[in-house]
Amino acid sequence: ISGDIERDGVPLVLAQAKRGEINDALALLNTLERRPRAPAFLYYLEGELRAGNQEWNKAWQAMWKYGSLAE
Fold first, then answer.
1. What is the separation, in whole angstroms, between the first and last Cα of the chain?
2. In contact, 13 and 25? CB cutoff 8 Å
3. What are the backbone dihedrals phi and psi of residue 24, each rounded to the nearest 5 degrees, phi first?
4. Is the model's pLDDT at 1 over the cut of 70?
5. pLDDT score at 3
6. What SS3 class is residue 54?
7. Closest Cα to residue 14, out of 3, 25, 24, 4?
8. What is the pLDDT of residues 4-36, one digit of tens each?
9. Dist. CA 66–CA 43, nearest whole Å
C-alpha cells in the first residue's frame, strides 16, 4: 500500500461498499478525509453512501462540504 488515496483508499472504500460493508467504508472515508490535500470527491462519495444508509442529515453535510471544496 502506497498511501495514495486515489490508488489505494478509494478502491478499498468502493469494494467495502459493494460488499455491503457501508459502516466500514464510511470509517475508512473519514480517515481518508482527514489526510492533507484529500480530494473533494471523497465527500461526494460519503454523501452517496450515507444517503444509501438513509442518514440524510450527514449525507447533506457531506454533499455541502463537497460543493464547497469542489468550486
1. 30
2. yes
3. -65, -40
4. no
5. 64
6. coil
7. 25
8. 677 778 999 999 999 999 999 999 999 999 988
9. 5
What is the Cβ-side half-sphere exposure of residue 44, based on CA atoms within 13 angstroms? 9
CB 26 within 8 A of CB 50: yes
pLDDT tens digits along 42-71: 999 999 999 999 999 999 999 999 999 987
pTM, rounded to two decimals: 0.88
Cβ neighbour number for residue 60 with a 10 Å cutoff: 13
Amino acid symbol at 33? E
Q: How far apart are CA 57 and CA 36, in angstroms?
A: 25
Measured between alpha carbons, how far is residue 58 from residues 2, 20, 47 in Å? 30, 19, 7
